Amino acid sequence: MNLPFLLIGIVVLLAVYLWSTYNSLVVLKTRIKEALSGIDVQLKRRIDLIPNLVETVKGYAKHEKSVFENVTKARSSLMKADSMSGKAEANNMLTDALKSLFAVAEAYPDLKASENFRDLQRQLEDTEDKIAYSRQFFNSNVLEYNTKIKVLPNNIFANMLGFKEEEFFEATEEEKKSVKVTF
User: Fold this and answer.
1) Any stretches that span the bilayer, and where are they (predicted)?
2) Can you tell me the distance from the alpha carbon of 76 to that of 87, in angstroms, rounded to the nearest whole number?
3) How does DSSP assign 67-113, residue by residue?
4) Rounded to an integer, what distance in angstroms lies between the CA atom of residue 73 and that of residue 63?
5) Considering the entire predicted model, what is its pTM?
6) Is residue 4 in some structural domain?
7) What percentage of the chain exceeds 90 in pLDDT?
8) CATH number of the domain that 37 lies in?
């Protein structure tokens, strides 16, 4: 008589555990999507600021055509990127192109003193900080999710239910290099 109740109890506990695990994995997966959306929002903001910045600098540096073309190409690549690695690569291309743009701006004291340029530069710096935070938030969620699907016994159920490991938003080799500051 006790054996059927024990078996029913075990089945119920297993079902509750599976249900709970599935729901927590769905929540974590949704957080990852939300965090990726946050990165996209900041990248879009960055993309929207760049034409204004380019136009401001163009007025002072008409002969720096290749710098503007590189910024435009990198911006276009970021807008078209649809995978995590594609976005990371395009983001890095844009970062490099913007470094060149700011180097050009350094050569024009009137431009550096322009309130419009300084405001755009501050907004872009603020956006860069938000992108960094968004990437960190995304990676924290990916870490939590990937850990949850790898630990026992969750890994058995996660695999059965089709949950796969997510990719981190990683820094490139260029971003990992130390910055050299000279005076």
Assistant:
1) 6-28
2) 11
3) HHHHHHHHHHHHHH--SHHHHHHHHHHHHHHHHHHHHHHHT-HHHHH
4) 18
5) 0.67
6) no
7) 30
8) 1.20.1440.20
